[in-house]
C-alpha cells in the first residue's frame, strides 16, 4: 500500500485562524485541529456506521457507493446499491456485464453518465490494472467519472490514506464553518476550500473523518434549516455566530434557463407493447431506451406513418411531460398511436425494440420512458 500523504502542516493550521480573502471580515475562525477533533467526537456518537457500503469495506464497494451517492440521497441509493452489488460483486463481474444490464439496474437513479463511466472504469481496471482497484490517487483519478474528491474519498475510506475531499456537502460545511463568501464553484473560492479541507483532514482516523464530514453535511448542516443546535461546530461556526446560515454557501449566479419543446412518438401494439428507440451512446440519456423524439410534430407523425406503413394516422395527444436538465427545461408532448402494426419498425433490432411492461426486458430506460409507460398503464391504454 502506498504511503499516506503528509498531514497538514502547522503553518496551514495557523492560516485557518487568519482572515483570508473570501472569509467574513473580522470573523474568528477555528483551527483545522479543533475542527477535526469536534467532528470525530460527534461521529463516534452520532455518525452513520451501518450503511451497506460500510460493511466488508473494499475499494470497489466504496467506489460504487460514492458514484451512486453523487447528487442522490442515501435512502434512494440503498436498494439500488444492494441490487447492484448482488449482481456485480466485484470489478470483473461489472467489467464483463452487457451495457444494457447495467443501465437496467441503474434505471431510476438518474444521471446515467455515472453508470456508463462505471462500466468504462471497470473495464479499464481489468485491462490496465489486472482487475485490482488502483491504490494511488493519480491512478484512481485517471479513471472515467472519478474526480479529485471522489478519488480521495475512496482511498480514505477503504485504504485509510490521507486525502482531503470536497463534495457538495463538504463545501457547505466548510463555507459556513469558516465563513467563506463567494460562489464555491468559482476557481478562487474552490482553491481556498481545498486548502481548508486539506488543513482540516487529520493524519489519524482519516476514514472516520471522511465519513463524518459527509454525514455532517447530509444530516445536520443541510441546505435549508440546518440543525445548528445539535451541530458539533456550534461554538466554532462563523455562519452560526453571525446568522449567515441562510446565505452560505453563496448561491450560483442565476441565469435564465432556456426552455425546449419536443414530441415523443409512441407506437403501441394491440398487446400493449410500445416501440422504444436506443439513444446514441453520448449526449442526453446516452445509451438508454426511450420513445423516438422529434423537434417538430410533423416530423414525429411522418416517422410513425413510415414505420407503420399507414397514412393519416389517428394520433392522440397525451398530457405534456416536463423534465428538467442541468442547463434547460424540456416539455415533451407525447403523441400516441394505439394498435400499431409492427411493419418495418423492428427491422433494426440494435436501434428499436418492442417493450412490454408486463414482461419487461432488462434494458436501461430513460426517465420519460418509465413515467410515460406507467401513465399508459394507469390510463388503461
Brief characterization of the structure:
The chain has 381 residues and is an alpha+beta fold. The chain has 2 domains: 10-58 and 133-242, Orthogonal Bundle (Endonuclease Iii, domain 2); 259-378, Nucleoside Triphosphate Pyrophosphohydrolase.
Layout of helices and strands, plus pairs?
Elements: H1 10-15, H2 32-46, H3 59-68, H4 74-87, H5 91-95, H6 99-106, H7 113-129, H8 137-141, H9 148-159, H10 168-177, H11 187-200, H12 206-219, H13 238-242, E1 259-267, E2 274-278, E3 289-290, E4 293-294, H14 297-308, E5 316-317, E6 321-324, E7 329-337, E8 352-355, H15 367-378
Question: What this model shows, in words?
Answer:
β6 (321-324) and β7 form a beta hairpin. With 381 residues, the chain is α+β, with helices and mostly antiparallel strands. The protein is built from 15 helices and eight strands. The model is unreliable at 1-15 (pLDDT under 50). Strands 1, 4, 5, 6 and 7 form a five-stranded mixed beta sheet that branches. It has two domains: 10-58 and 133-242, Orthogonal Bundle (Endonuclease Iii, domain 2); 259-378, Nucleoside Triphosphate Pyrophosphohydrolase, CATH 3.90.79.
